[in-house]
Amino acid sequence: MTADDRITLYYSPQTRAAGTRVLLEELGAPYDLEVLNMKAGEQRKPAFLAINPLGKVPTIGHRGQIVTEQVAIFIYLADLFPSAGLTPALDDPMRGPYLRWIAYYGASFEPAVIDHFMKREPAPVTQSPYADYDTMLSALEQQLAKGPYLLGERMTAADILWGIAFNWTMTFGIVPRKDVFTRYAERITQRAAFQRVTAADAEMAAQHAAAAGG
């Protein structure tokens, strides 16, 4: 394995990037962290803005290329390590539903929960990317009720993305703690990979807070 085959994850603890780190752990992928102290504003400095002009994590580097956008990163990484079994193959009938629910996260869920959290008036249903908040959430509830995972009995990278998202948004009261969402999130947060990353994040976040305060 060459240095280019290793994945560089531009990272800050207790952010969306944690989900990508959990996925890398689940995949057994070789990776290195390039840690940014967001409490010190390192994500807004020229060095990182030259890599991702939006100053956002997660961002990954692999084989000389940069990949941004959480949904793209999840698809890319899961496809890169098919032997881990977290992505349906291109000729798998479940490939379409898998892509549907991953894309739904970025296209519908995130804009809806941000509008909801900010108490912004949503666009008219005919112009909104997510119809309306309740409809968007109801579609997820109906799909997860078939469980235990989005694609039934099979866990995929989509479940890591969504399980962590539900855990995070329910913690802050953005998404209601319905039983189906709670049980689903627990299936992911009880896994060893999530527990390892959470413990490491707590230690790293404490170090960043101390450094920023000093």
Automatic annotation (TrEMBL):
- InterPro entries, A to Z: Glutathione-S-Trfase_C_sf, Glutathione_S-Trfase, Glutathione_S-Trfase_N, GST_C, Thioredoxin-like_sf
All copies of the GST N-terminal domain together span 4-85
Specify the superkingdom.
Bacteria
Q: Could you say which residues form the signal peptide?
A: none
Ordered alphabetically, the record's keywords are: Transferase
Q: What's this protein's family per the entry?
A: Belongs to the GST superfamily.
- What's this protein's name? Glutathione S-transferase
Query: What species is given as this protein's source?
Result: Bradyrhizobium oligotrophicum S58
